[in-house]
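Second attempt. The first submission of Methionine aminopeptidase had a stray character pasted in from the spreadsheet, which I only caught after the job came back as garbage. Lesson logged: always re-copy from the clean sequence file. Corrected sequence (255 aa) follows.
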Amino acid sequence: MVEIKTNENLTAMREAGRVVARALAAVREKAAPGVKLTELDRAAREVLAAAGAGSPFLDYRPEWAPVPFPAVVCVSVNDAIVHGIPDDTVLAPGDLVSADCGALLGGWAGDAAVSFTVGPARPEDTRLIAAAEEALEAGIAAAVVGNRIGDIAHAIGRVCRAAGYGVPDGFGGHGIGRTMHEDPGVPNEGRPGRGMKLRHGMVLAIEPMLIGGGTDDHYTARDGWTIRTLDGSRAAHAEHTVAITDQGPRVLTAL
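This time the job returned cleanly.
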């Protein structure tokens, strides 16, 4: 079931989205050579606590997960696509980091992700991250009243494939509102004109994930959470929570 949000609901979700944006900014600022991934999680926790917000990630355990997620932010490094668990791994110069964070505030959720490099970036990483951001922008641009979910999926997939990158099957965006994961699903590839019609008041987390090596193959690491590229190539992830409105798409997790 898809809940249609009121304008007042969207205003409340924007406040949750601002907390997410600040948490991701804190993670990015903290990331540097020699810093442990647990320190990035701590930076995000401090932002959530200061805002009086909860975390939809902490202790989250879907049916497929062997253990509850132990952090408030997913930190996926280099060949990790999504769902990386912050541990004592130390960041090194040139690492590609994808950070995904959520917040619960006033009964509403926000969810966003960003990819960046630690220190000087390799040219191929710069291109990969730029493509992820371009795919996200294309998906957002298609998130207009009267379009369908397939139009968003097609816009994302077209950018990814044109750039020569892989798209991991089975992973994509989702509805969001009172909880982090709601209907409908938002694939990262699809046929235009297909799927649920978009209406004012729908809110979607749009999140392209790109595999640098060009294949779609991936596997789940031994921790039961982290999704990695099968060929060992690097990956990038970009996400925003976006409201569908009669005035056009409204990004709720922008700074």
